[in-house]
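Tutorial sheet, problem 5. The two components below are modelled jointly, 1000 residues in total.
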Amino acid sequence: MTNEQRTCQSESVEPFLQQQLSDEEQVAFELHLDDCNECRRQLEEAAAGDDVWIAVRDSLLSESSGTDCIDDSAEGGAETTFGTDTVLELLAPSDDERMLGRLGTYEVIGIIGAGGMGVVLKALDPSLNRYVAIKVLAPHLGNNGAAKRRFSREAAAAAAVVHDSVIEIHSVAHAGGLPYLVMPYVRGRSLQKRLDEDGPLPTVEILRIGMQAAAGLSAAHAQGLVHRDVKPANILLADGATRVKLTDFGLARAADDSSLTKTGVIAGTPQFMSPEQACGDAVDQRSDLFSLGSVMHTMCTGRPPFRAETSYGVLRRITDDPPRPIREINPQIPEWLCLIIDKLHAKSPDDRYQSATDVSDLLQHCLAHVQTPNTPLPKELRTMPRRNWLTHVCVVGLAGVLIALGAFAWQFKGERDPAADPAIRAKQTAAPESDNQPRSDDTKRDDVARLQGTWDCVSFIQSGRRLPEDRTKYISISFFGDGVSIDGPMGAIVGTFALATDGDAKSIDLQVKNGDEHKTRHGIFNFRDGQLWLCLADEGKRPNSFESKRDTGRVSLMKLAAHEPEPAPDNDPNETLALLEWAKHREGAGVAATFSLSIPGRQHLEKRSLHAGTSPIERLSDIPAFPNDTFTLRYVLPNLSPRGMEFLARNSVFMSVGLEELSAAADGKRIVRAYYFPDDEPEVKSMQGMQLQASGLNVGLDQSQWLADVDELGEIIVAYEITCSPKARTLTRKARTLTSPSNANDPRKRHPNRWRQLEATPADDVEATPKETERSSLKLNPLAPADSSSEPARSDSDSKTGN
Amino acid sequence: MTTPETRGSLLIRVRDPADHAAWHEFGEIYRPVILRLAKQRGMQDADAEDIAQLVLTAISKAVQQREHDRERSKFRTWLHRVTQNAILNAVTRGKPDQGSGDGSFLALLHESESHDGPDSDLLRLEYQREVFRWAARQVRKEFQPATWDAFWLTAIDGRDCETVAKELGKNCGAIYAARSRIMRRIQVKVAEYDEDV
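Model answer (structure tokens):
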């Protein structure tokens, strides 16, 4: 590299830092920097003080190594609700008492929604007697003069766009310093809402919506407008789905202005941004086409193509990564449609379609092809082998598709083999992606109906676990950790499948989930000798028999209580109390109470982890009030997040409370129960103590100490302390007089060498059996009565960690 | 993308538009601070999340009860003071309480008013770092990815300029230029932020 300028250019340092040099000057200065140490030094000194260099380095270093703590809620929160109240305060009183108030000449009827950009009101235009939607710029943006001016200007420009697929703008006006615009009131859902509710759309719909959106964009582009915020929420589906209306034209601009004022507000999620937007580069109309690509991708798969934990991460993915191939997620999407979307998704605008008109025309052509198969595909798309996608009869929502596949395979088998078990029904429990139930065919409906309400939740781990005889109707399967027969680490997942009795091996397709990756694994399972065996084939293969793989059954697996179809109340996750009440009514009846403990705060759970659900600790301690020899804590969490799912899979625990313990607890004794798992079960080992600690059952005790201790010995003990609340105590005492103890279903009897009960009752004979003590060095000190203190039995753990 | 319910409702309560921005920024900076502090104390992710939730909820309640104040700076100063106090109370207390009712929120805010010592030093440090991180996140959007990489690889990862220049296909001078510019922007951002508090 040659460098002509030898003399130092100190005078360029400051303008350079402030980015005031011309391009040529910049290049020259950078070249000069190549050789001039003095200027380098000056530049860095001028840029920031030493302390700042160091501080930035310290801060950011720990950022990259540490957990990424920032999530999208910071930005997302901005979008949900901004200043509804402030907007309402703007309204003038109305003469009509049914109205919220008056805005200009419009009578406001209600609030339709609030977004990052503003609040949308529904109002009546009395002069024309028609309904309108009024969008008021969000107060935080309205405070910004530039944003306000731009809002009005862009709105005026948008008003000039006349197209069927672009929402009309009746007028732009101001009230109380906030600008607002008036649009027709459109009955119908937004595309976002439709996707949320229905999942991925059929190809025809994708084409129809995409085509109209592109046509709308092209009309706007013809006026020199760039939408900048093309996303499903801004695409209204009027009259059901047939007519598309684009909204929010150019409004994103106003948000750009405001973010320049360092309020830190990013309007909306960046998920549908184009790379040039993400970089903050100048955008043109082709930016909208990228966003349109993202919208179409979302219609195909049900979720946005670029996703990450943080907004920052999303931006990076947009700029750096290709989206995941659509057909990996939804194989029903024809290849040529993927080609179109890929082209829209080109990182460089030059590689995309060059105008929205092109896209609209192309999609229209494709639509004709789909609707009238005689019409050939456009030439540029025709190189692809024609898929027989039209013949796909069964449209399965992508959401539940894999689980559905399992059911499908199953039914298929059932048809071929009439002797096979009829009572087959796949029903997912807490699988988050699946809202749509797999279909079961008519002939089996009765069985299904009979069995409904008894399906189980995934839980703990144990391979080849012995299941209680023939009462088993359902199994739930959950994999995680390093299952022996599964290569590499895996996340949770899960199918819950019904079965009636022992029988031939059934094939099963399971969705395997690792992070965001989903895979389908084929396997077979059988119910032999009361044990559940499962064999998963290598990826892409189907196992023929159990013998084909030595690792048969060596997967993490759990069956929660098997039970008769006991009618339980509907499991509304918010009805914990109702469930508990229901269970209480069974008190003394001697019926095995298998019930769900639903955890309130579903929202919370979706967002975070199961642990968030532990608030009803009081209720947990009420549990011993039920004098049944077994009961199951069952968590029913629809819409659980993947993380929550995994957490649930790891942490649910099968608890069994015997009458003796209950009685003891009621008498004010403390009970410590510990379950341990012999070290000959590798899956158990793969379970991490840490995870258990986080299980949040929190019935007492400092669990971490216990677990850590036991881990060292190659065993894991889960220890719980059960204490009785006063209320529970009363109930239990009462119950004791009604029910005689029965050990028939006591898991300790069923699995004498697996379950240990370390009973701390009464206070002075808390010893575990000598053997146990020896093996685990688990020793329990006398515990105080429950009501004297709820402090964890610290001294125990201390004494144990001493070794 | 889901949004926790609390957050949305919090935002509604902060009525003044200027406060919106302050509150937003506040969450962006403090939530990670709380998480880090909690994790440094050996807490599980879930517990750290709980603490963060607890503190933010407590603050939101305090915000609600606070008399409305027109001056943004006052709101911010107040917010920071209350929050730092609540964080210290929460993390020194350890794992979050189980059935956290209203009582514990208030306790968080009103327990011992002043903290000194290692915890509060740590909080200050973490807070300051988070401000830098926040500033860096803001600034990141202003630059080309390649520019950012040049900055990150040399100034943060501490790698040799020559090597990185070769890797990125740039001149050495360009690397110096890139990182100095970014550094300047970060410094400006941080200064802007500090000014406001």
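Marking note: Residues 401-548 of chain A form one domain. Full credit if you identified this.
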